[in-house]
């Protein structure tokens, strides 16, 4: 006897967004505020996952203010950093000082990304024209006459067919919808990977420091409440060899780079505590096909350098909402709007990604140098150089090349 195939439930919406990350949730919220009927699909059943992009930069803090969500945002437990220090050998440098920025937001907020997404979801789901389907993954693109007309999806109650005037792929750097639409990213050269792990904050700790570069190792030390979110930059593809040397050698590498973490490193008892982030740097030449648009990591995967990936994704969402809301509300085609979105957001990406590549090269070359033997005059020169660069670097890291804005009114409406 042949087993019956479940009949897919059909849902109709104006805009279907695949992916409930920062790009997808921000776009859904903004479009819903403009009156567009929106359905967001998130493949997980909740947002509580081990995100690594836990930095909320000044550009995104500005948008939170413009959305009227500052009070709600500040009620979420969070930490702040106002400078990005790096210790090179024995010399402390401060190339980024957000105190030089204009406006009220002169810091990076540090919070679990699930709290940020919960905030956006609560605001959006209060609107009748917004639907969030958790535990629902977009698996393929529906097509009609060469145009994307929605998606097929797998939900907790069975298969779904979601018909939409516009589909947005915000489903990350391994986007299934991007692949289904025949869009292939251009891969850029990357020389590093990152190992992520946590260490408890030692009783005696130095000033907040982004990273330590010495003895051939670059360590990232992001301060959080009671612990450091740690990152170790390693040559791409070298994790297998590092594991073969044993966890003891890994702990010793931490101690040699940052001696104050020597005791804390003993808390690493298993390689399961160390997560490999295979660094990608790529971008699409074409962000859209008729009926479907890619934004965020689905359009351009960013390196962890400067921590701008989440914030560039949010900027994409703001630019997309501005261009898409009018034609979607009027029932007009959105092809030209999608082209304008790519033209606006592509060039900030094209400026930032080569800078990230250059930082990869600088870190790789510096890691192989004997930085502990840096002459005093070089240390003084580096200190002066970092001081002179602070305003430029604060703007570059904090707000990027083209920060997007909403109207500053009570309802955070999009500019006309």
From TrEMBL:
KW Manganese (keyword) present:
no
Q: Which GO terms describe its molecular function?
A: FAD binding; oxidoreductase activity
* Record bears the keyword RNA-binding: no
Q: Which residues form the FAD-binding domain?
A: 12-328
InterPro entries in the record: FAD-bd, FAD/NAD-bd_sf, PheA/TfdB_FAD_monoxygenase
Keyword list, A-Z: Oxidoreductase
Q: Which domain of life is it from?
A: Bacteria
Q: Which NCBIfam families match?
A: PRK06185.1-3 (NF004834)
Question: What is the protein name given in its UniProt record?
Answer: FAD-dependent oxidoreductase
**Organism source for this protein?**
Arthrobacter wenxiniae
What is the organism lineage in this UniProt record?
Bacteria, Bacillati, Actinomycetota, Actinomycetes, Micrococcales
């Amino acid at each position: 006897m042949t087993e019956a195939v479940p009949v897919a439930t059909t849902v109709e919406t104006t805009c279907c967004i695949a992916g409930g990350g920062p790009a997808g949730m921000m776009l859904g919220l903004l479009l819903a505020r403009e009156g567009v009927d929106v359905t967001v699909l998130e493949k997980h059943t909740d947002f509580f996952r081990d995100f690594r992009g836990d930095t909320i930069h000044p550009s995104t803090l500005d948008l939170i203010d413009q959305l009227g969500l500052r009070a709600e945002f500040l009620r979420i437990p969070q930490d702040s950093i106002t400078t990005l220090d790096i210790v090179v050998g024995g010399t402390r440098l401060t190339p980024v000082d957000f105190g030089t920025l204009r406006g009220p937001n002169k810091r990076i907020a540090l919070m679990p990304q699930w709290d940020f997404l919960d905030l956006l979801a609560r605001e959006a789901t209060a609107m009748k024209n917004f639907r969030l389907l958790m535990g629902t993954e977009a698996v393929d693109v529906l097509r009609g006459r060469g145009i994307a007309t929605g998606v097929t999806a797998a939900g907790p109650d069975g298969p779904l067919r979601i018909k939409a005037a516009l589909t947005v792929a915000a489903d990350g750097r391994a986007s299934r919808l991007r692949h289904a639409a025949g869009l292939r990213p251009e891969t850029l050269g990357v020389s590093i990977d990152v190992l992520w792990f946590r260490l408890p904050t030692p009783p005696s700790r130095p000033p907040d420091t982004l990273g330590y570069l010495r003895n051939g190792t670059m360590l990232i030390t992001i301060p959080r409440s009671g612990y450091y979110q740690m990152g170790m930059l390693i040559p791409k593809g070298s994790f297998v060899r590092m594991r073969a040397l044993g966890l003891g050698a890994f702990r010793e590498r931490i101690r040699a780079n940052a001696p104050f973490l020597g005791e804390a490193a003993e808390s690493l008892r298993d390689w399961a505590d160390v997560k490999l982030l295979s660094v990608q740097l790529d971008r699409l030449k074409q962000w859209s096909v008729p009926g479907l648009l890619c934004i965020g990591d689905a359009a351009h995967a960013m390196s962890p350098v400067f921590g701008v990936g989440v914030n560039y994704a949010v900027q994409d969402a703001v630019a997309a909402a501005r261009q898409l809301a009018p034609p979607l509300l009027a029932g007009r085609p959105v092809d030209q709007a999608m082209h304008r979105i790519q033209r606006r957001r592509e060039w900030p990406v094209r400026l930032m990604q080569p800078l990230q590549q250059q930082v990869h090269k600088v870190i790789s070359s510096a890691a192989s140098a004997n930085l502990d033997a840096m002459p005093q005059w070089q240390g003084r020169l580096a200190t002066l150089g970092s001081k002179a660069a602070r305003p430029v670097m604060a703007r570059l890291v904090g707000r990027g090349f083209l920060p997007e804005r909403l109207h500053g009114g009570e309802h955070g409406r999009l500019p006309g």
